Amino acid sequence: MSPIEIKIDEEKKKLVKELIKKLHQGENLQEVRNQFKEVLRDMNALEITQVEQELIKEGMDPREIFSMCDIHLEVFKENLSTNLDLAPPGHPIHTLMHEHVKLVEFGEKLFQTTRDLRKVKDFPFAGNILGAIQDIVNHFKEAEKHYLREENILFPYLEKHGVTQPPKIMWMDHDRIRELKKEIFELVEGRKVSNYSEFVERLEKASLALAEYQSGHFEKENKILFPTAMQVISEDEWKDITKEFNDIGYCCFSPAEAVETAETVETAETVETVKSESQEATLDSGIVEFETGRIDVKTLEAVLDTLPFDITFVDKNDRVSYYSNSSERLFVRTKAIIGRTVQNCHPNKSIHVVNKIINDFREGKKDKAEFWFRLGDKYIYIRYYAVRSREGEYLGTLEVSQDIAQIKQIEGDKKLLDWEE
After folding, report:
1. Running DSSP on this structure, what letter comes out for residue 188?
2. Are 150 and 170 in contact (CB under 8 A)?
3. What are the structural domain ranges in the chain?
4. What is the pTM of this model?
5. Residue 253 to residue 139: CA distance in whole angstroms
6. Cis upstream peptide for 89 (omega within 30°)
7. CA distance 44 to 326
8. With 70 as the cut, is the pLDDT of residue 322 above it?
9. What is the distance between the alpha carbons of residues 377 and 43, in angstroms, rounded to a whole number?
10. What would the CATH number be for the domain defined by 92-258?
11. Which CATH number does the domain 287-408 belong to among 3.90.180.10, 3.40.50.300, 3.30.450.20, 2.60.120.40?
C-alpha cells in the first residue's frame, strides 16, 4: 500500500483542519476541545496523520505542526487509546513501546534524584546521589540505540508507504531530546559548573525539561506513529525490520523478548548460511571489467568492505543506492535506507546544507565538501565528492567517513622494512 490509500469523510476532514487552525490561531483551548471530541470520535490515528500531512502540503510549516503536537494530543488523547499490546512480544513496535515505559521511568527518577541534591550542602556530601544520577545517565546514553532504530529503519519503511511528514516531526523531537540529554551529560560528567547551588538548579531544570519533553514525544509515537505503522507495514516487512533492529542492537533495558528474538534470528541465519555455503561456492559472481583491470563481484565487494573508511553513494536522483559494510562502521547504516532520499536521512535542521552541497555538485559549482569534528575519542573526517562521468555528467555523490584520530598522532617515519610480525 504505497502511497497510503484511505478514505476520509471530506466534511469531517474539513472540520478537523479548521479546528487545528483555530488552535494555531490561539483560540480558547477548552472550547475547541469540546468540538474536537465530536469530530474525532470515529477517526483513527492514520486518518489524523493524513489530515496533518495535508495541512503541511497546503503550506503550513512543519515546525508549526511540531509546536502544536502537544496541544493536539491534549485535545484528542481520549480518542487515541494507549495500548501496550498493540503488537505481540518480540515485535519491533512492542519493543519500542516498552522501551518508552522504561525511559519515562528513568526521566522521572532522574528528576526526583536530582531534587535530592538539595538535601546536602556541597559536592563532597553528594557522592551517593551523584553516583545514582550517573547510573541513570548511563541508561540515557544506552537509549541512543532506540532512536537509531527508529530513524534508520522504521522511518524509511513508513516513507515507502507515503507516511513522510510524521517521521520528520518525530526526528525533530529526537534532536531536541538529544540536546536536553547533552546538557545533562555535560553538567553531570563535565562538571562545568563549580558552584553547587547553580549546578543543582541547572540540573534540576534540565532533568524536568527532559522528563516532560520525552513523555510528550512518546505519547505522540504511541498514539499516532505506531498505530499508523501497524496499519501500513506488511508482515513480511516487519520480519525484515526485526532483523535490521537486531543488527543495530538493543538497550540494557530493552524487553527480554527483543533480545531473545534477536538470538533466535541470529541462530537461524547461521544455520541457513552453513546450508548455503556449498551453493554459493558454485555461483558465478560475475566479472567487472575496468580500464585498469578486472575483478569478480564477490572480491570487489570484499575490497570495498575492507577499506579503512566508510563509503556511501547517493545517485543522481538523490537516493541512497549503496554503502560499504565495514566492520568498524562509524555511523549506522541499514538496508532500509536503500532507495531513501538523502534528505530524509538527515535531521530537518541540516537538510538545507545537504541540498546546497548536492545542488552545487549537480550544477558543477563544487566538486568536494569536507567537515571534521570530535565524537568521543574519535576524530571524524567526512568528505563528499561529486561523481561525474568522463563527459562531465553528474552521476551522484560519494560520502567518505573516516576516524583520523590515530592518523593525526603519526610522527616520524615507518618504512616497509620497519614492519614487525
Report:
1. I
2. yes
3. 10-76, 92-258, 287-408
4. 0.74
5. 8
6. no
7. 43
8. yes
9. 50
10. 1.20.120.520
11. 3.30.450.20
